[in-house]
Amino acid sequence: MVRAKSEDKRHAILEAALELFVERHFHGTAIPMIAEKAGVADGTIYRYFKSKDELVNTLFIEKKREMTAYVTQPFAAGLGIKEKLVAIGVRFLEYAEKHPKTTQFLERNHHESYLGPEAQAAELPIIHFVMGLLEEGRAQGLIKKVNDAVLVFLLYGALNGMVEAQRRGVIPSLRAVQGDVEECLWHAIRA
Question: Distance between CA atoms of 52 and 48, rounded to whole angstroms?
């Protein structure tokens, strides 16, 4: 019972921090603000996290792992490279739709200097996963012979751009333009 209550407080702190970091950014958010939003005393936060830097790093790692697990789920049997890459894109867009604040937080913070090596490394599993698919496609003659990182970040940047465009109301629905996005991105990377 005590452990469950402790985990509830930790979760409340992380969720409050997520909301405030999205609304006010890291530097505009103070520990007392997080504590108030989480419904805990300021000192309670320091039982779970040594500093605001540790809190943002923990939040980034946990949310990036959550997103990666969603996007890299096993594929249905028999899918080709194009279908697997489309599935990853669709999953990313679904995740972004279900977790808009998390997606904003991850995108806004992944280049920040306050993220330590472990948080920066949290992005590697999804990058390596996509690079593996690109290599597989290249071996089949389906993917351009260019640097994998260029292709990964071309895809990632485009998908994040679509999410941001929907958030700002430029695109009314990602589902409405999904086919166009798939076609454009496939043309950008295919051999």
Answer: 11
Residues 116 and 169 placed together within one structural domain of the fold: yes
Q: For residues 176 and 157, give the distance between their C-alpha atoms in angstroms, rounded to a whole number.
A: 19
Exposure of 150 by Cβ count < 10 A (0-12 exposed, 13-18 middle, 19+ buried)? exposed
Do 102 and 25 lie in one domain? The reply is: no
DSSP string over 50-115: SSHHHHHHHHHHHHHHHHHHHHTPPPPTT--HHHHHHHHHHHHHHHHHH-HHHHHHHHHHTT-TT-
Residues 11 and 65 both lie in one domain: no
Closest by Cα among 90, 110, 109 to 155: 90
Q: In terms of residue numbers, what domain contains 153?
A: 57-189
Give yes or no: residues 36 and 113 share one domain.
Answer: no
b/e sequence 40-51, b meaning 16+ C-beta within 10 Å: beeeebeebbee
Q: How many separate domains does the chain show?
A: 2
Integer Cα distance of 30 and 90 in angstroms:
36
What would the pLDDT profile of 133-178 be if each residue is shown by its tens digit?
999 999 999 999 999 999 999 999 999 999 999 889 998 888 888 8
Last residue of a domain, one of 49, 71, 87: 49
Supply the pTM of this predicted model: 0.91
